[in-house]
Sequence to fold (302 residues):
Amino acid sequence: MTPAARRLPNANDLELAVHAKLSSVNAVFTLSLILTQASSPGQVMRLLTTVVPSMASFRTAVSWHPSRSGDYYERAPDGIGDTLARLTAPGQLEMGGFSSWWAFPLAP
Amino acid sequence: MSLPAPDSAELGFQVGDHVCGFYNGGNSLDDIVVDYVSKGLEAGDKCVCFIDTASSVRARVPADLIARDDSLQFFTEDEAFLPGGRFSKDALVGGLEALAIEAVSAGYDRLRMLGDVSWLARSTVDIKTWFAAESGMNDLATRSPQFMLCLYDLDLFDGEAVMYVLQTHPRICVSGIIITNPHYIPRRQFLGSV
Fold:
């Protein structure tokens, strides 16, 4: 077998990848059900930010609160509300000199 | 918040169920327990609760539903989960199975159990050790005619713990409806992941 052929994903690799994707989707879906029972936005933020390491290999998770900072989130950048309102498709946000933010609208 | 235990066949518990539910502190736990126990007693089930608020729950369960002295039993969380001051998965699973066998021997068709897991948040028991035991309870569920409802206070646990809860319970109670949990992981696979 050539080195190039060895790099081709086989059916088992694809199945594992699909399974991993499906597992992530299931996790998000199930968690969203639980969050419908949360008592406050603060509780939602705490649960969301502490669940991220269990769902994906991130080192840091940042979430924004519209007006204030807290233990689990940062204050949202000025003007972010207008920027997000204009968003119609997944895209990169450029704010305050930072361009490492990506946003994905959940509804058009 | 109220998390009623539904009683209709299409929405309710199935024998062998191991279900998780979530609540938000305060009186909402008592509301859930009273509803769950009342439905069980109406159905003629034996009900056993592992909670620290037995007196307030007992006072709200209609007395005419308690047909026999042993129909409704309470144990504190420490009595149930930390007998002798320590946690043992084998002791817990064995104790639950003994309760189910005892209920059948006493003439009940089913045993309806409920446990509040708030004790875990104030104990030194490793969270993975606990959820390995939760996962092991799924084997017990298939051997005995019982329902098990495990309740978690969202004020006490973080997102990581919530994900473990979801990985170890085949079904979830959400807003009073019991649904299949798509994020459940079979025991062997779960134990391999932790």
The two ends of chain B are 32 Å apart (CA to CA). Confidence is low (pLDDT under 50) at residues 1-11 of chain B. Chain B has one domain: 18-193. The helical segments of chain B are 28-42, 54-60, 77-81, 89-105, 118-122, 127-143, 159-168, 187-193.
